[in-house]
Write a structure and sequence with these properties.
about 180 residues; about 25% strand; 6 strands; Alpha-Beta Plaits; alpha+beta; homohexamer
């Protein structure tokens, strides 16, 4: 067990030093390797909004979703600016998918990030979902403010020393 | 009923024009007035993380919360950069409050924004909560990735032509 | 004739002081008033790209245009960050319109900005067009790099002490 | 012919998936290699502005050009923030050159970017030219608004799987 | 004495609430009024750098100073993004002046900001000086790293309820 | 002696070309290697502020320091955006430490950056100290504006072709 590991056990909140000071943890000893992260979340809609998206304004629904996806991709790239202790990271790909699920009364959002770097991309995946969700809220709030952003979590990650992570249950996207 | 109102009824997704093009809606006819918005949300924690924050690392818990609050305030100020169709807005005050609620197994986040401008600050309140929640996730994820960001919604807004909005039920913060 | 006017005649490059130093000129003596600015520009396409947008990929053409419009709106909001001596400005509305004009072999872009502030929004209108044009280029460059961004200019402005400006001839958009 | 190549032929607008969703395309299979890109463009000036830069204010002309070059360099670095689907990229060098060409009645702008990364720097070269051109416009617009940004295009790129690209005719900079 | 004043006496660190939480203090009760702030600071140079700027490279010295001034102006505009609890503010003018003072062996920097808003512009004036000083450092560090940024302070402010502030002694700029 | 070296001797202000144009110097020939940089600086306090931090408000003092450290870390990451000719750089770790030293009547700030890249991280270390210092100023200025940011300099750097640099005397932090 190496020293870094020992320190991590004694101090599991690694973003704080022994005096509680914030720090961007040292990733200089890690070597770049392929990493992926997937996250999900959704925006719950009330009946009025759900009806509007289902019927009258359905021709525009796609545009709302496309703009939210664009915002999610852009948000993923800026994660390190917004989250204080995140590392700036090279991103190989960012995908964000927003789907209107009328039976679930929600817009479901899923992101997938790929990178070849020394630290993981979990935060980028979560930031993509959060930014897309906020954008959905912004674009629909003139109709109804009874929306709730829910279930924003990491679904899966691969790569890095901590290996694979799989959320349980698998996905809120598959009811 | 004025023309803008008529258009809004025919086209309730006001961020899109009649061809589905995105637009930053015109607020030039509104006059500046005092506005507030409050939002809430929380990060659900698993048992291991909850125990850690309750016991061993409790001296550092406050530091996690303070950094998340700082990030939330900074995130609110950058809402217009991140959300494509938001207006840049003058903010009079931003408050973000993060509390560890061990019985609820969560970190509960609440924001309050005040402004005197021509458009509302709902998005700033929601962005503050989302950014603080992501920061909590980032700082705790070395311990456990089983966190979920939940219940991010507008609690209350005042001011503007649409008047007061109050979420029902009142608040996830008062179980 | 007031002193500021006299100085402007002697030193028409008002963004530089008498020693050639850059400065953000003082707008503190002006009072806020309604202002608008419209700009245009286009991306010339070669035949291969024109054919592709006309036929095979036509179902996606709209998506390219919508994302470019979104980028143009976001770019307008960040003008003051990117252009060194621009003032941060309140924007009341931003509209960006991208149209594929197969007979002109181009994607034509037009922006319109409204504001009620102490300085004009010409730069925001031009930045919106430029950013949308760059985004079109980025999204189409895998097909062909023979694109040229052309004709980016101010079409019209209203408001402010210099009054109305109208470009001659009226618009590249109406061939 | 590999699968990615096949997909690209069927879907040449690679920034959109098969449903028209935006995506930051995956560059994870590419390996870092030296890349360069050069772009050009110019700002057409009317006679009054041309005379002013030639004569009276000539001592300041250099300062206008230097500030535009500085803005162009800074703009290149922020390309990934402004253009929705661009990858964040490591830049090895950025050069932007602005020249007043009185016989052409224009300020001619040329950029050159070098990088060692997995994707090209064409967009950075074009963004550098666009940002410098907008800055020229901003600094001269108090004299005359009859400026047009023209001819913004890629001149040359090297490196990457698509190899060298050379614009025809060679350059607007050599009349 | 109003309540806000009483609270300020009991809690003079107004950026923290009674629990030590950060907050962007409420300026909603203040009315916009003209405000100015001036700041100064300098970069101490060693002999080698001083000689270089005095003699051989003197033709370029002006360019170093102009770029630092440009960076200082841009830095002032982004103060609210960089300093966590600063309010976004409308700036009426920003001036930054960098002078090489060989007898003092330094580059002396002075900024002046004007605004008509509800809160002061001291931080913008200080951020302008700091950013210009860092830029000088960056541009000269290939020659010598023995530079020190010194004396960064507020020289004068006017406007607002706390009235005028004048530093004592008057200015490091007048030896 | 290679050509780059010869050019550097003739033109020691490497951020400017032979015509005085700004440029982001080419680092494409360098190979990535481990680099560190440490910087220091302090905020001098007057007696009133020093007493306040020592006594009455001491419970909040830590919060001021933690927020300044957070801002310093975030500022380091954005160095390349703020300083015109800095390269975007991968940062492996950022540490910022703010200490109240009542006997010195100051808040002392020290930063340490680690990276594995082709260019040094001196500017990041200095930007971290400057941003933390400005944040201290902002949070304390309601008590007293008689603060001065002093002694901001590079303490030590390692790595890169210019090798180690050690400031003399060693550190203002060890009186």
């Amino acid at each position: 067990m190496n020293l870094a590991k020992v320190e991590e056990i004694k101090n599991p909140l690694t973003h704080l030093d022994e005096h509680g000071r914030p720090r961007m943890v040292n990733v200089g000893d890690k070597s770049a390797s392929p990493r992926t992260a997937e996250a999900e979340g959704w925006v719950s809609l009330d009946e009025s909004l759900c009806n509007l998206l289902s019927e009258g304004a359905s021709s525009k629904k796609g545009d709302v979703l496309r703009i939210a996806e664009t915002a999610g991709i852009m948000g993923a790239k800026r994660t390190w600016e917004i989250i204080p202790l995140c590392h700036p990271i090279r991103l190989d790909s960012v995908e964000v998918q927003c789907d209107f699920q009328p039976e679930e009364r929600r817009i479901y959002i899923r992101s997938r990030i790929r990178s070849k770097d020394v630290t993981g991309v979990e935060m980028e995946a979560l930031a993509a979902v959060s930014t897309a969700a906020l954008t959905v809220y912004d674009m629909c709030k003139a109709v109804s403010k009874n929306m709730i952003i829910e279930g924003v979590r990491l679904l899966r990650k691969t790569g890095g020393k901590s290996g694979e992570y799989l959320a349980t249950p698998a996905s809120g996207g598959q009811p």
